[in-house]
Here is the input.
Amino acid sequence: MTPSAVLFDLFDTLVLLDRSRLPEVQVNGKARRTTAGHLHRAFQPFAPGLSLEDFVDALFWSWQEAERIRGESHREVTAPERFGMMFLHLGLGHGMVPPEALQMLLATHMQELSKAVVFPEHHADLLRGLAKSHKLAVVSNFDYTPTAWHVLDREGVADLFETIVVSDEVGWRKPSPVIFELALQRLGTAPGDALFVGDRADIDVAGAQGVGMAAAWINRDASPLPEGVRAPEFEIRDLAELERILGV
Here is the structure.
């Protein structure tokens, strides 16, 4: 295959989330790996009487509600919107939470979550090699674009991509065609000249194929193809296999 552009999913494709690196917090006698403890401490000056347990309950509810909305409609629920849902669940209505509280929560979550993100060294080598001959892009389902940029900047590869498209900017998540089409438009590339690489067959493969792109599925665990999903053009276990597929 000789595409002129290669588009990548971000999390669990280019970078990996090591949940053992997330901070541990004790809630109701149970240990959890989550940013919730740090978020609660950051929020305490704005709600001094709010217990950790009540905060975590509202935070997890907002995450679950956001996932429900995303699953039903493929609409993105942004991180600011999700925290706003949490505020309402806590009984903190309009005007009761100052803007700086939201900014503190967003910054704290980005800082603690990014510490758990791992970028394999050979992924960087692959990207630098591909960038010499291909247009590169990132297309990610994520609720806060600054975190994606922070991770890629930290690893020194952000400038290798001609565009980085994150669903909170677009308003729609993969497999919606909107997010793929925007990335292709920014690249100035036709779908037939592009390859999409991702770890989710139902989201990355199906979404890319839906707009006419070829897809490479990173199937690290050799999982069966989900029912109703057309087989990808390529199935790989590691990103390094792209060198063989693309002939670089």
The chain has a mean pLDDT of 96. DSSP finds ten helices and ten strands in the chain. The radius of gyration is 19 Å. Strands lie at 5-8, 16-17, 24-27, 30-33, 117-118, 135-140, 163-166, 194-198, 214-218, 234-236.
